[in-house]
Specification:
By secondary structure, the chain is mainly α. The chain has helices spanning 14-25, 36-48, 54-81, 83-96, 115-126, 131-140, 149-158, 174-194, 213-224, 287-290, 304-311, 319-332, 353-365, 370-378, 409-419, 431-439, 480-484, 503-511, 514-529, 533-545, 551-563, 568-580, 583-586, and strands at 226-227, 229-231, 238-239, 242-245, 252-255, 259-260, 266-269, 277-281, 405-406, 441-444, 449-451, 587-588. The chain is built from 23 helices and 12 strands. The protein is globular and about 80 Å long.
Length: 589
């Protein structure tokens, strides 16, 4: 039931009733509304990961003169319909599922087909695939064949989720390799889908949450009955790759996807050692949710499909809450539950349990459609508040207000390229990972095992102007800009981005060739678009910051240009580079 509020005129969507109810009970009031330009920039970055263009700014401002509310809704619908939406929210999903194009540090072999899973994520989100099917396809899409080969292919590609984690392939005990991969799969399924640290129960009963070791091995048996390796050669173990028919009925497509293995129930490994076996742990689900002593799975397969359907059962209290909490974090800066990957005893309590429950129920009631939930959140008045406090804000209720936050590393890089006019916006593809494969260290040519150990942060392939999403995720070899500005560690499940502030970030912006090069492109663009410096400054500020310069800024910039000598091109390049360093360019209000 929605809370009753006094100031119902403030309510734009049902979300606002929960926010306002809390504020009214505390005798507090909402923060001031964000400006139109700040709001357009905020929601464009939130929904697409890119800045608004001057054309989009002009269109929004003109529409606002006629009807600001209709203009705002029009922009939200446009952004959700953009293919950039899938790229933006696909990158956030990749954070959670530890996406990488290489295996890990012991060999760091290139997984040449991992990119297909990345592109599947983007396509699925753009198509608004219901979230329950989004999860089922990743866990068990290969077990849902279809008469249409193209559908069967897509569902198999989705199971790349089970393949992309870090793997210690140099281990000579190949059964241990499999069990370690199972542990990693359980960890990501638990934290990404259920908000539970299931992997903590590998060696002993969970120290805090009601997950006994027997439950760990019940779930581990499901994944141990799934085969992700194509061979078990002593060195350079090869992961599973296979050919599947494409939609045209003529060609085949190489995919990285698991197969059903030999069905087996594991015994509890005492203290985590496979050489010290305890009681049998029949394959089934977490007893704290599914019921103590519930019947084991009755299946000749691995049990992945049954597990997937249990996870997305509306009766499961965690899956939907974990997801809507991640959506809230994406738009407001932190989740209703701040520990988005841990809903256990050691996780944070929800700041508004009623709101969390209501959002979860709404996701299910709306057919598990994510775009509907995005729309509800960003259309709310809670979302439209200013992130800059005016002295009358509510620090105790800060989760209700979008937080001033720095652009994520990929957003920052992509914004520089977009503003300079150099961003290549083509969707999908694997050409850069193919470059890495060709220059990598060949370990086994016959089986196609190539190491990325020689690829470092300054590899030539990273100079591409494609969106950061499409740069290969080389574990332990990220490009400088992404590494410096806190891109995720692809060896881990990452629930939220960090924000470090270190001198090397400033040094990069001042000295790395990428920044002045893009500043040069931007300078050429604004100089060619207008004949006088005042008009050029207006275009520069509009492209980079989404607004016109204030008087003091324009005066300072004109004084700088006048004092810079006869090399007009160099002066404009330096000015554009300075704008890239502005806090307002780097931070999102």
């Amino acid at each position: 039931e929605l809370p009753k509020v006094g100031n119902s005129a403030w309510v734009k969507t049902p979300v606002d009733r929960f926010v306002l109810s809390r504020l009214e009970k505390a005798s507090a009031r909402p923060a001031v509304p964000a400006t139109q330009t700040a709001l357009l920039r905020r929601m464009t970055f939130d929904l697409t990961g890119l800045p608004p263009s001057p054309t989009e700014i002009d269109s929004f401002e003109k529409d606002c003169v006629r009807d600001s509310e209709a203009a705002y809704r029009k922009v939200v619908d446009r952004l959700l319909a953009s293919p950039r939406y899938g790229e933006r929210w696909g990158r956030l999903w990749m954070d959670v599922v530890r996406y990488g194009d290489t295996t890990a540090s012991d060999g760091n072999f290139i997984m040449r087909q991992a990119w297909r899973y990345r592109d599947w994520i983007v396509d699925a989100l753009n198509a608004d695939l219901p979230y329950d099917r989004f999860l089922v396809h990743q866990l068990a899409g290969d077990l849902l064949p279809d008469k249409d080969p193209a559908v069967t292919l897509r569902r198999a590609v989705a199971t790349g989720f089970l393949m992309i984690g870090p793997k210690a392939l140099a281990e000579s005990d190949k059964e241990q390799v499999k069990l370690d991969v199972v542990d990693e799969q359980l960890d990501v399924v638990g934290r990404a889908f259920l908000g539970l640290t299931i992997a903590c129960a590998r060696c002993h009963d969970h120290k805090f949450d009601p997950i006994p070791t027997v439950d760990y091995y019940s779930l581990a048996g499901i994944f141990r009955s799934t085969e992700i390796f194509g061979d078990l050669v002593r060195t350079a173990t090869k992961w599973m790759e296979r050919d599947l028919p494409s939609g045209d009925g003529k060609t085949k497509v190489r995919v990285m996807a698991p197969r059903e293995g030999i069905s087996m129930d594991l015994r509890v490994h005492e203290r985590g050692s496979r050489h010290h076996l305890g009681d049998l742990a029949p394959r089934r689900f977490l007893q704290v949710i599914a019921g103590e002593g519930h019947a084991p799975l009755q299946t000749n397969g691995s049990g992945r499909l049954e597990l997937a359907r249990w996870i997305v059962d509306p009766k499961n209290p965690l899956t939907v809450r974990v997801k809507v909490n991640r959506l809230w974090q994406g738009h407001f800066g932190k989740g209703i539950v701040e520990s988005t990957d841990n809903f256990g005893i050691k996780g944070a309590d929800p700041s508004d349990p009623a709101l969390l429950d209501w959002l979860a129920a709404e996701l299910v009631a709306g057919g598990w459609k994510l775009k509907r939930m995005h729309r509800m959140m960003v259309l709310s008045n809670a979302y439209r508040q200013s992130a800059v406090r005016d002295g009358s804000g509510n620090p105790g209720f800060a989760f209700h207000t979008p937080r001033l936050r720095r652009l994520e590393a990929e957003q920052f890089r992509d914004a520089i390229l977009a503003v300079s006019g150099q961003l290549e916006r083509r969707l999908g593809g694997n050409e850069i990972i193919e470059k890495a494969f060709k220059v990598g260290d060949v370990v086994d040519k016959k089986r196609g095992v190539v190491s990325a150990s020689t690829i470092n942060s300054r590899w030539e392939g990273y100079k591409s102007n494609r969106r950061s999403l499409y740069l290969p995720v080389i574990r332990n070899g990220q490009p400088d800009l992404l590494a410096l500005f806190d891109a995720v560690d692809a060896n881990q499940v990452v629930a939220g981005r960090g924000e470090s502030i270190v001198p090397s970030q400033a040094a990069y912006l001042l000295n790395n060739p990428f920044v002045p090069e893009q500043a040069g492109h931007l300078a050429s663009l604004v100089r060619e678009a207008a004949s006088d410096d005042v008009s050029r400054l207006g275009l520069l500020w509009r492209r980079a910051l989404g607004r016109m310069p204030v008087v003091e800024e324009a005066d300072d910039a004109l004084a700088f240009l006048e004092a810079s000598g006869p090399d007009e091109a160099a002066a404009w390049r330096e000015l554009c580079q300075a704008v890239f360093c502005f806090n307002e360019f780097i931070y999102l209000e």
